[in-house]
From TrEMBL:
Protein location: Membrane
Domain Anoctamin transmembrane: 194-675
Pfam families referenced in this protein's UniProt entry, alphabetically: Anoctamin (PF04547)
Sequence intervals crossing the membrane: 214-233, 253-276, 339-363, 400-418, 446-465, 551-578, 598-618
Domain of life: Eukaryota
InterPro entries assigned to the protein according to its UniProt record, in alphabetical order: Anoctamin, Anoctamin_TM
Native species: Fasciola hepatica
Protein name as it appears in the record: Anoctamin
Topology with respect to the bilayer: Multi-pass membrane protein
GO cellular component, one term: membrane
One MF term in the entry's GO annotations: chloride channel activity
Amino acid sequence: MEDKIVTEFTLFVRSQSSNSAKLVQLVHACFTDSVIPNQTPFQIQCCPCCPSQPELEGKGDVMGAKSLKHSEHFLLLRVPRSRMIQVATLLRPELKHNVDQLTYAVDTLTPGQKAWLAEFAIRMHLFPDRAFTALMDLLQKTRSSEQHEANMLLTLQRWDLVSDLILRHDKPARRELSRLHYLSFHLFPKSELLRDYFGDQVGFYFKWMRTYSLSLLFPTGVGLWRTMATWIVHRFSDLPEETQLDKDISSPWLVTIRLVYTVFMIFWALVCAKLWSRQHERLIESWSANPLLEHVANDMPWLFSMLDTRPTYHGQWRMSQVTGLMEIHFPARERRWRYMASGLMISGCLAVAGLVNVVLLNLEGYMSTGRSSWLCLTCVSQFASPGAIFDPAGTGMLPYLPGIMHSLLVFVMNQIIFRRIAEYLTEFENHQTVEAHERALIIKRFLFEMIDAYGCLAYLGFVLADRVALRSLLLTMLITDSVRRLVQECLIPLVQYRIRVWQHHRAFGLRKRQEEKAGETGPADYTPLTAIDRDVCADQYEPFDDYLEMILLHGYLVVFAFLTPSLAAPIALVSTVLESHFDAFKLLWITQRPTPRLLVRQTSVWLALLAAQAWLSILTNVGLWIVSMSVASFDLGLVSPSLLYLLVEHGLVAAGLVLHFAVSDVPVDVRDARRARAFHRSSLFPTTASRA
């Protein structure tokens, strides 16, 4: 079979010194003559942006100087099929002599899984002796055996010589995927096609979006029932006509309807969290059925820790107790001290975020000495008093200005200030792997986003007990967030990308016309910059914002379910379906192609946050119910509100725990498959069976 190119990567050289062109050639030599850990020669096709020195000398100094005139130096790394088969033997050594089965396993991988295997192959490279010596001489560094034996790409990144690998788009495959995706109308993006091309983790995101959209049909139906039941109560009861539908708890029947809806939403969230965990485990087992990946994705997490080491991870060199090779070690006790310092800093930032929200609420007129004297800032709230410039009952645009300022300031705080603080603190904690680093960063940013998203709602619900204002704000946030996501994540990046591509092509066209006018031709090993125009112009794909928006949307429905409008679930359903199509379009045509990742046996941090919100909803909704009863002057009998809160909250928590322990996170068939794999790998079981 033809040894065709399977995957291509772009590797940018960061050095801007006069030796950049020579550095490109040395990095090119490192990849061309490198070896893998078993000292087997391992060559991949590496095309530099700059011509080699012999060809420069053949064309003269003037020609060489002009050919090297570009700001960003890079290499194209092409991994052929034969090299992927070669590195596959490191994952399954027992298949080394069964070439047919090994070849079949590689050929049946999806394009996304092949890209993961190709990146694995590149990251396994070790320095060749001659190229390593030349590189150390150029950089004027002291040669050390630890650096020589370390991962080559990781070492180059630690020296800040190269960027991370950028997976290039397969243009024919992307065009065909786009054609199939938009060929006919379908309610959800084709997750299997997207998973094949972009990898398993992106495929899981779209699978989860589809499952979440379908699960929203149940709250939509129950919300419709709640609206109809509320209308019937108002129609056939003696309540005053001025009572607003679905916004009143003055009747025991209305309270009962709301309680039924609230309890349903709480257990709907708990059941969904359990089902999503089971879906995650089932997809891990299904998508790792290939013989090459069945052990990697399920039973070799240490492999990912070894290959997923961050370039900025620092510590002391020591002999690894697992691999026997030299590795960087950072003491756990020192990391714990850094965790404590980071936690104190985060607590201070959360306090600042809360203070900013209090100031903005004063400016919007929600704070007053009569309603919440302990949070009222007279110097600020006076501008929202009756007759003042920001009086909520005033006319014109000025009363809406504090709300606009609130949204803009929250956006600036989250996306600029707190984001940088979270990134700095996570870097300070010095996590070894990219996975651990991202997990810590996600938790920090979620805390900041949660304070800004839920802080005002909690104040309106628990302090002011203003049901009308809370429902109005919830509905406004749901609608505005949906519109903002469309504009901010799809339209604006698309326009920016097209402008950058136009500027890039214009500059390259001008340079090409000048070279043609001078009668110049590029050397044989020269790669034109147009070959990587998408890598230069497109932004990197960040799944954080996509997941975070869906979690906050889920929180609006669940955390404040007792006072959530009936329209919230249908709006969330439509928003989720549109969001899935926006994300598919963004991945195909706006961002860089994300480096594929396999699904492995570990708890997803996003699913853990969704489950945490489900448990939090028990506390918040019971509290909203008790506060609403107190404000409406309902007769609770001899039971105090605090005791009633504890009884109801403990009862719902107990029911949730029964559900949690009654339904396993791992389906039975998945658990049996994993046990069967462990049984066949073990040599003790056959021995025991034969003795019996």
